[in-house]
Amino acid sequence: MEMLIDFPGGARVDAHFGPYTVKTDQPPMGGGEGSAPTPFALFLASLGTCAGIYVLGFCRQRGLPTEGIRLIQRVHSNPMNGMVEKVDIEIQVPATFPERYRDALVRSAELCAVKKHLENPPAFNVYTQVA
Q1: Is 32 exposed, middle or buried (0-12, 13-18, 19+ CB in 10 A)?
Q2: Which domain covers residue 78, as residue numbers?
Q3: Quick one: 93 and 60 in the same domain?
Q4: pLDDT per position in the chain (131 positions), as tens?
């Protein structure tokens, strides 16, 4: 997959791939307008939405309704360096959700590809090229 990253103005940085554009910005205190999420907020959102895709797929495969299911993600950072130390993802299910599927629902969320890439990170190669 190839993405084109450009700078549309201000503190905005956008990623273009396929038919999509993902917009990012910085908050006003960071020199931006706050017109879009920060890149790091998108990164964190990718964790929760990825887990959500697996939860959704689990329910669809079993014909289970998804009404009333939601995920709450909590990020715990080290106050000394600001680095994320722990991410909790709570899957809230309605009382009518079958108890026999609850542990399997957690296991399905743990299959998230974003999480798996964090557990076994890729190598990074950053360089310049004259265009």
Answers
A1: middle
A2: 38-119
A3: yes
A4: 999 999 999 999 999 999 999 999 999 999 999 999 999 999 999 999 999 999 999 999 999 999 999 999 999 999 999 999 999 999 999 999 999 999 999 999 999 999 999 999 999 999 999 99
